[in-house]
Each structure stands twice: as C-alpha cells, then as structure tokens.
Amino acid sequence: MYTVISGTNRDASNTEKVAKQYVKLLAEKGIKAIYLSLEGLNVLTRNKEFNEIETSILIPTEKFIFVSPEYNGSIPGVLKAMMDISDIRKVWWGKKALLTGVSTGRAGNLRGMEHLTGILNYLKVFVHPNKLPISVVDKLLNGAEVITDASTLNAINVQLDEFIKF
Fold first, then answer.
1. For 147-156, how does the pLDDT look when each residue is reduced to its tens digit (9 = 90+)?
2. What is the pLDDT of residues 111-128, one digit of tens each?
3. Range of the domain at 136
4. Which helix (H) or strand (E) holds 3?
5. Count of domains forming the chain
6. Which residues of 73-106 are buried (b: 16+ CB within 10 A; e: fewer)?
7. Residue 99: which of 67, 135, 70 has the closest Cα?
8. What 8-state DSSP symbol labels residue 71?
9. Looking at residue 65, which CATH number applies to its domain?
C-alpha cells in the first residue's frame, strides 16, 4: 500500500495540492494511493483519531511519499510530532519512503528533506535517493490545483517510476 502524506497542517496549502497531484499521477500508473492530510490532526497525544489513522493507514503502508514544505529551514512540527507519537516499530521499521520538498523560495526545501531523511533513517526507513526539491511552487501552481510545467512533471514522473521499482 502507498500513502502520500501532505506534511503540513495549513489549510488549502500548496503542499496539499502537490500531494494530491502525486496521488493522481500514481493512479495513472495503475497504483492506488491513500492521501493523508495532517490538517486538523491532533498529534500532541495519542488519541482515538490518531489510533484509527495509525491502524488503518500508517501500519499497512509499505511505501510512503512525503510532500513537505519548508518551515524555517526544516519540516513542519506536525509531521515530526506525528512520527513521535506513532508506534515506531509497527509504522516505520523496514518500510520505504520518497521525499518531495516544496517551497516558494529557490531551494525546494532541500534542508528539510535532509532533516527528514535523518529522522526516517533513525526510524529504519529506506529513503529513495531521488529527493525532488520543487522550488517556486506558488508560481508553478499559478493559482491552479496542479502543476502543469512540463519539466517539473517530467521530474515527478521519473521520481515516481523509480520509486515504484524501489
């Protein structure tokens, strides 16, 4: 099972738009992926809602795709907190991950993806080496719900094709 995680809790974010596009692109490749938004998710303590997400989505997932925005040179706290309250052995150990960073700046969350790689490696997750930084995401989306830029779409499709084989 594949799960695409929109790594922010902000409403109507660019991250959400990109994550949903990953789900659609995977469907075009014949792969059904679950979309998981962290919007409104209480990750400060284990609770009934989180336990349900962990049981029905996180534990059965074999391959995670993280779409994470740049927050102060790293990843959003909600994403890290979700990992912190999870059952690490059941949710993360031995699984695979693909990372995509998004930012309105020039670096596409390169630093954040490196931080996330370190966290995932600690959790015994195998991280695919093709980490895609998507810079100036606001301009690529240009008010739309999807990225239409041909070179960015090509990079995403190459990344997904490699991850499917990973």
1. 999 999 999 9
2. 999 999 999 999 999 999
3. 2-165
4. strand 2-6
5. 1
6. ebbbebbebbbebbeeeebbeebbbbbbbbbeee
7. 67
8. B
9. 3.40.50.360
